[in-house]
Specification:
four-stranded mixed β-sheet; Aldehyde Oxidoreductase, domain 3; five-stranded antiparallel β-sheet; 40% strand
Length: 138
């Protein structure tokens, strides 16, 4: 089964990602959207940029394949944005379409959790006080 896997430097479309997991046999669809927020750990965020390692797309495909192996019949999608993002922009969209809702919720949760834990995409935040922070570095 073909799954949507991508890392892009353009705005993300939640409807496009969600629609990619619908189809025959899909009774439940769950979508998770991660957006850039204006505050992190009590500090005002003014700029944010995501950078991906050259292997990130393959690592993301590996995560999707592992989740798919544990949820037979699942249709999965995971798209992450890189580059400079503004407050409110979508940074990541994942979706899972499964025969039943419980599987869809579990697959979507696993997909975003494994993506965040293992795919080499790093966030560089600049705060209003002039400090900076990298998130997700090994």
């Amino acid at each position: 089964m073909e799954h949507l896997v991508d890392i892009v430097d353009r705005p993300l479309s939640e409807p496009e990602v969600a629609s990619s997991v619908r189809g025959p046999g899909v009774g439940g669809t769950v979508t998770f959207v991660g957006a850039v927020r204006d505050v992190d750990a009590g500090r005002d965020v003014v700029r944010l940029e995501y950078t991906a390692h050259p292997t990130a797309r393959q690592r993301l495909a590996d995560v999707v394949a592992a989740v798919a192996a544990d949820y037979p019949g699942a249709r999965l999608a995971a798209v992450h944005r890189v580059g400079r993002l503004e407050i409110g922009d979508l940074a990541v969209v994942v979706a899972a379409g499964c025969p039943h809702r419980d599987e869809a919720f579990a697959a979507a949760r696993r997909l975003i959790d494994d993506l965040k834990a293992t795919v080499p995409i790093w966030k560089h935040q600049t705060f209003a006080d002039g400090t900076e922070e990298w998130v997700g570095l090994p």
